Amino acid sequence: MIAQLTKIKAARPDAVILYTAGAPVIVVAKNQQQLGMEQIPFVVSHGINYSEVAKLAGNAIEKSRWIFLSPKHLTASKLPPTTLTVRHL
Length: 89
Hints:
The protein is mainly alpha-helical and 89 residues long. The chain contains five helices and three strands. The protein starts with a helix and ends in a 14-residue tail after the last helix.
């Protein structure tokens, strides 16, 4: 992904939307760190398991601006209690 990310970096985007799942996410995370793209937000789909990516990509995710779109029930254990609400219809 180095070639693609190099072109993206040159375009100076406000953010990168990454709609994929699985191993490619790890490659992108590591490559964006190698290219010094830590300040560019990467918005990733709900199909990406944050825990798995964080474990495999290590500090590439921790030192970058990754935004994981996910239903609350998948990340509830990591959210403050005040963000969890129950709505009855």
